[in-house]
UniProtKB/TrEMBL annotation:
GN (gene name): sppA
InterPro entries attached to this UniProt entry: ClpP/crotonase-like_dom_sf, Pept_S49_pIV, Pept_S49_SppA, Peptidase_S49, S49_SppA_67K_type_N, S49_SppA_C
NCBIfam families cross-referenced by the UniProt entry: SppA_67K, SppA_dom
Protein name: Signal peptide peptidase SppA
Segments traversing the membrane: 21-39
Compartment annotation: Membrane
């Protein structure tokens, strides 16, 4: 990178050089650390965790519950964790596997839910519901489930309410705020800056572009949002009320009159929660340790109760290698995150990389059915079709394709699902959003005010029809809008084909509108309501196989990446790496913070990479 001449250029050049030097120093420290632990690893391998008889299995999810954890370079992950910049995630399948193993494990006597570090669930509440169902199944063995928390957010309590006993710190609190869909709107700010946002869309309810063309939520968007939010909220209330042996009317009374209830208890939210029947007992951390010691006994260190965390428990119980077998297989492919063109690692759906996973399952003769587990708000229209066409090819070659919708399978997430042999959704899945939009910002006005102008020549009227610094020609606007309308027509056609409906029938429930899984089932957009296991069972029946195994098809990890991961999982290695990364963080904290912000902006822009600037996105995350 050569040194620029402009003042602004020199400023960013200096920032880049500072980051570059700091990065080189950090890489040097990392390389030394890795070398040390590679040598140690050759001398002695790690011992598997011990599961003592009568232990409590502690489920303590951190961060966001996800279908698939977002890929992060192992070294960067340790550094980010040490610097406090990591956004933690917990795989729902790790929790489900731990519960399933513990169910019939005589070494586990009780399940403890610790929810303090749980911040939410990607895509909606279906992941809480899957865990609640697994916990209910665990309880059929007669083993107790205990929940404990310093305080409870709405989502934390939803999970905790499935326990036999719920404890909370005397200084804690809990309340139900309901569900909302809130957006940030930029129209006035963009107008002041002179930025022209050129929007192309089809669909009355396709509100993904509203933040750039309005200062508030449209009435159409409010109408659609409140309906699916209401379905999710009613489902959550019904589940909690059933678990706590109360009615939804009693819950509503607590929510609507919370201020009065709080005042009646002298502002003591913890006491109010107990008296209203949501918490069984207020207990300090020390008191909870004593309670559990009485139930399961002391641990080897004699400083707490006998327990094992779910991650260590999985290391002890989960097979290290999936041994190949001659059985027929149902392949499960997870498609989680935004859909973008090209190749991506876990946490984002790359059109090419996801198609490659499907192709791998398609070319495996032992795979008789493919289940796509979709958890996505959508994204690139082109990438969505790359994925769907690969699924269609699998169907042409005789394989059954079933979609299992997780928290979200909307817009592009619905596009890739629409022509499956069967579609399953949770009642609380966010789906639909059958619509398409294009959006291109141009900056000619602010640049002109700064005295910066663009001019030139071209051999045709299209040669200079689009330039982010000089605008979009009227003819090109018509071209883009025509393409968007064609894309919407294609969307209607493939849904009509896949669902056995007419285009007019699809159009009546499309228009970019988001539906809950329950409504989508009623409207014919999904076939059945159920979870992933239900979808897998159904796929096997459609493929006429009974003796089969389930195989998750995932990206193959390189030997180098696997080696680094194993090193990083070593507790001593993590401590050394974190110490090294703290040195870097303290050296340039401002540059580090700036780098994180720049990275977030880059990731946002990088995800909008459709070659035709056409997007299938619902912008329907629940807040």
């Amino acid at each position: 990178m050569s040194k620029p001449n402009s003042m602004i250029g020199r400023f960013f050049y200096r920032i880049w050089k500072t980051v570059d030097v700091a990065g080189r120093l950090l890489i040097g420290l990392i390389a030394i650390t890795i070398l040390v632990f590679m040598v140690r690893g050759c001398v002695s391998g790690p011992d598997l965790p011990k599961v003592s008889d009568g232990s409590a299995l502690v489920l303590n999810p951190a961060g966001t519950l996800v279908e698939q954890t977002t890929y992060m370079d192992p070294i960067e992950e340790v550094i980010a964790d040490a610097q406090g910049t990591k956004s933690p995630e917990t795989s729902m399948y790790d929790l489900l596997d731990a519960i399933e193993y513990a169910k019939n494990d005589d070494s586990i006597s009780v399940l403890v839910l610790q929810t303090n570090n749980l911040t939410g669930a990607y895509g909606g509440i279906s992941k809480y519901q899957d865990l609640r169902e697994a916990i209910e199944d665990f309880k059929t063995t007669g083993k107790k489930v205990i929940a404990v928390g310093d305080w409870y957010s709405q989502g934390q309590y939803y999970l905790a309410s499935s326990a036999d006993e719920i404890y909370m710190n005397p200084q804690g609190s809990m309340m139900f705020e309901g569900m909302a869909r809130t957006g940030t709107y930029f129209k006035s700010a963009l107008d002041k800056l002179g930025v022209n946002v050129h929007v192309f869309r089809v669909g009355t309810f396709k509100s993904a572009v509203e933040p750039f063309i309005r200062d508030d939520m449209s009435e159409a968007a409010k109408e659609a949002n409140i309906e699916w939010l209401g379905d999710l909220w009613q489902s959550m209330k019904k589940d909690i009320a059933a678990s706590r042996d109360m009615t939804t009317a009693e819950m509503d009374n607590f929510i609507e009159n919370y201020l009065e209830i709080l005042k009646a208890n002298n502002g003591n939210g913890a006491k109010a929660a107990v008296e209203s029947g949501f918490i069984d007992k207020l207990i300090s951390r020390a008191e909870f340790r004593d309670l559990m010691i009485n139930q399961v006994g002391l641990n080897d260190k004699q400083d707490s109760y006998k327990a094992i965390g779910f991650k260590d428990y999985l290391k002890a119980r989960r097979p290290l290698i999936d041994m190949p077998s001659a059985k027929d297989k149902v392949a499960v492919i997870i498609a989680k995150g935004e859909i973008v063109d090209g190749r991506r690692k876990e946490g984002t759906i790359g059109g090419d990389s996801t198609a490659q996973l499907i192709r791998k399952a398609r070319l495996d003769n032992s795979v008789k059915a493919i289940v796509m587990r979709v958890d996505s708000p959508g994204g690139s229209a082109f990438a969505s079709e790359v994925i769907r066409s690969e699924l269609v090819q699998a169907q042409k070659e005789g394989k059954i394709v079933v979609t299992s919708m997780a928290g979200m399978a909307a817009s592009g997430g619905y596009w890739i699902s629409a022509t499956s042999d069967e579609i399953w959704a949770h009642p609380t899945t966010i789906t639909g959003s059958i619509g398409i939009f294009g959006m291109v910002p141009t900056f000619e006005e602010p640049l002109n005010k700064m005295g910066i102008h663009r001019d030139g020549v071209g051999t045709t009227k299209w040669a200079r029809s689009f330039d982010v610094m000089s605008g979009i020609s009227d003819d090109l606007k018509e071209v883009v809008q025509t393409n968007i309308e064609k894309g919407y027509d294609d969307f209607l056609s493939l849904v009509a084909e896949g669902r056995g409906m007419t285009k007019a029938e699809v159009d009546a429930i499309a228009q970019g509108r988001v539906w809950s899984g329950e409504d989508a089932h009623r409207l014919g957009l999904v076939d059945k309501l159920g979870d992933l296991d239900d979808a897998i069972d159904s796929a096997a029946k459609l493929a006429n196989i009974s003796d089969y195994e389930v195989r998750f098809v995932e990206r193959e990890i390189s030997p180098t990446e696997q080696m680094i991961r194993e090193i990083m999982q070593n507790t001593e290695a993590q401590a050394s790496m974190q110490s090294a990364s703290h040195i870097s963080a303290k050296t340039n904290p401002v540059i580090h913070a700036l780098g994180q912000q720049l990275k977030e902006v880059y990731n946002l822009i990088n995800n909008y990479n459709d070659p035709n600037h056409a997007y299938l996105h619902c912008m329907c995350e629940v807040k």
